[in-house]
Amino acid sequence: MRPDNSRMKALRTLYGIFIVVGIAISWVGSTQFAKSTYTSSFDAPWFVVWFSTIWMSLCFPVISLCYRLIKGWGFRTSFTKAQNVFGDRGLCPITLLTRCLPFVIIWCGCNYMYTRSLYVLSATDVTALFSSTPAFVFVLSLLLLKDELFSWRRLLATLISIGGIVVIAYSNGFTGTTMIGVLLAVGSAVLAAMYKVTFKLFIGNGAALGLAFNFLINFGIAFTFPLFISLGTVLGIPLNAAVDAAWRAAPFSWLKGTGAVMIIVGFILMSFRTKDEGSEEDSSTPQMSSALFVHNTKKQLLESS
Fold first, then answer.
1. What angle do CA 256, 117, 161 make, to 5 degrees?
2. What InterPro entries does the entry give (predicted)?
3. Is residue 174 part of a domain?
């Protein structure tokens, strides 16, 4: 192997580690802070959803500034190119109602259910249950996108993830408020999967909005190994367990641990790509990425050629 390649791989690994830590800490921090908002005198999940969502308004200015520094684009140029995501009509009341409103509803429902489930369950349980999202993405992509990425391995990963959900639900009991919390967390995962699949279905060719939507994840995939980026979300489970045990004295039974491990295994099996499944990078390097991300990337490359 050439020295330049070795140095580049070492840099990518180092960057990947930093991004993993950033993703894991940010996810754990946001979940724990959302959990901490529930007190005897304060119960406002919608306010938490609004507060966490309003920060996304910074995405477009930041990306516009990056294009300004890199390509010399002005704000008007960036805005004009970003409107391509709305089709030929551009940004207008009709496209706002038809292309934005449905996603706003799904987004609010997903985040509300996630935040509300934290009122009943521990942050560890909610994080583990939400990590089953790739399994639901796989199922919905087969049903709605007629995706050709079916494999028995992904089917097995889906079944393992669902099994993990059942185990965690069993550990909390199938009745009472804890079961409601489990249903809310799983419902949040389903809506998150629906958001991703319908995003591809209705706005699949919007490269500008796609960049904003996947800002941190795509940055990490572009400059490091996709393996690290996916592990950043998975690491949120043990980190939340550590925080819950240290600061909240929350019990973590072996059943919950088993369910969390099953979901992690399903997550890894769902995201792992081999050479036969179309990896365009070095086949000796296992890859981790979303199946939909791989599908979208190939489709956009074909359309641009």
1. 45
2. Solute_c_fam_35_mem_F3/F4
3. yes
Domain extent for 202:
5-273
Vertex 14 angle, CA 227 and 28, to 5°: 65
pLDDT, tens digit (0-9, with 9 covering 90-100), for 4-30: 677 777 777 777 677 777 777 888 888
Distance separating alpha carbons of residues 269 and 161, to the nearest angstrom: 10
The tokens describing 100, both together, are 């934005």
- Per the structure, the count of domains in the chain is 1
Does this model's pTM top 0.85? Answer: no
Cα angle value 177/163/258 (rounded, 5°): 80
Burial of 163 (0-12, 13-18, 19+ CB in 10 A): middle
> What distance in Å separates the CA atoms of residue 5 and residue 292, rounded to the nearest whole number?
29
Produce one character per residue of 60-71: b if its CB has 16 or more CB atoms within 10 Å, e if not: beebbeebeeee
Distance in angstroms (rounded) separating the CA atoms of residues 169 and 173:
6
Flag whether 289 is in a domain. no
- Is residue 283 included in any domain, yes or no? no
Tell me the C-alpha to C-alpha distance, in Å, between residue 285 and each of 9, 10, 35, 224, 280.
11, 13, 38, 12, 11
Reference 65, options 56, 55, 77; nearest CA is 77
The tens digit of pLDDT for each residue in 161-207 reads 888 888 887 776 767 788 899 899 999 999 988 988 887 777 654 44
Q: How far apart are CA 263 and CA 273, in angstroms?
A: 18
Q: Would you say 179 and 264 are in contact if contact means Cβ atoms under 8 Å apart?
A: no
Distance of CA 71 to the CA centre of its chain: 29
The Cα–Cα gap between 80 and 216 comes to 23
Q: For residue 255, what are the contacts with CB-CB under 8 A and spacing of at least 6?
A: 167, 168, 170, 171
Q: Is 294 inside a domain boundary?
A: no
